[in-house]
Design brief:
Blueprint: H1 23-46, H2 53-65, E1 70-73, H3 83-90, E2 95-100, H4 106-112, E3 120-124, E4 127-131, H5 140-151
Parallel strand pairs: 1-2
Antiparallel strand pairs: 2-3, 3-4
The structure holds zinc ion (ZN).
């Protein structure tokens, strides 16, 4: 978007100067967008506080498997719309994101997984795997190699 001078005619073609017309509305919208990003970043740093039993079980498992990584749960915050943004935040951090299939994340799962039995997404540095939480050990090799590849800067 090109920057509009405050004394230039407003782009809404009201005939008024920008500062007398849409400027305050535009600033308010910009502030709201920044608030959203800040909120997302804050949540992203620590994840949500509450965990289901399934997430607790998986968190404990991955803490042991990847002691150098921080593991957070974003089930209540991630969705189809902010998924890319969260991936970008995740790109350079040693943070593993866990997401459980719930009503809130159903749409995201349908997009990322072709198996209905997959009830967990693990995201690391922009790469992801969907799998069955109850069968978690089965995926250790896959997920370990995904993490190693990402740490070595390889794309999947
Ligand atoms: Zn205007």
């Amino acid at each position: 978007m090109t920057k509009i001078g405050v004394n230039e005619p407003c782009p809404c073609s009201s005939g008024k100067k920008y500062k007398k017309c849409c400027q305050s509305k535009d600033l308010e919208e910009k502030r709201k967008r920044l608030d959203e990003i800040n909120k997302l970043e804050k949540i992203y740093l620590n994840g949500q506080e509450e965990h289901s039993n399934k997430i607790n079980y998986c968190k404990e498992h991955y803490v042991e498997l990847f002691p150098d990584c921080k593991i957070i749960n974003l089930t209540n915050y991630i969705n189809k719309d902010n998924y890319r943004q969260i991936l970008t935040l995740n790109y350079n951090k040693n943070t593993i994101i866990l997401v459980e299939r719930t009503d809130l994340t159903e749409e995201l799962f349908n997009e990322k997984s072709n198996l209905e039995s997959n009830d967990l997404i693990l995201i690391y540095k922009g790469a992801y795997k969907t799998f069955e939480a109850l069968d978690i050990l089965k995926y250790d090799k896959d997920i370990s190699s995904m993490v190693t590849n990402r740490d070595n800067g390889l794309t999947m």
